[in-house]
Design goal:
Helix content: over 70%
Distance between the termini: 34 Å
Number of domains: 1
Radius of gyration: 14 Å
Structural class: mainly alpha
């Protein structure tokens, strides 16, 4: 779960929109073959989506994302 959080922060800092990520994890959980493959190593996709969609997490990542976008506009 910590790796998901750090990954979300890093992608937002790099200028990638973090908002679709929770939905992606929900979709991963729906893909039975993929979910079976990752299940021994990772929490369920729904649990990961729920954690990353928390308002305080999303607010933090959107600040980083908006800062990154503003930096790219200036360059």
């Amino acid at each position: 779960m910590e790796a998901d959080y750090i990954g979300l922060l890093l992608m937002a800092s790099a200028g990638y929109d973090p908002r679709p990520v929770p939905k992606i994890y929900e979709n991963i959980e729906k893909d039975a073959k993929f979910a079976e493959y990752v299940s021994p190593h990772h929490p369920p996709g729904g649990k990961r989506a729920e954690a990353l969609a928390r308002p305080e997490i999303m607010e933090e990542t959107l600040i980083l994302y908006n800062d990154a976008c503003a930096r790219h506009e200036v360059e």
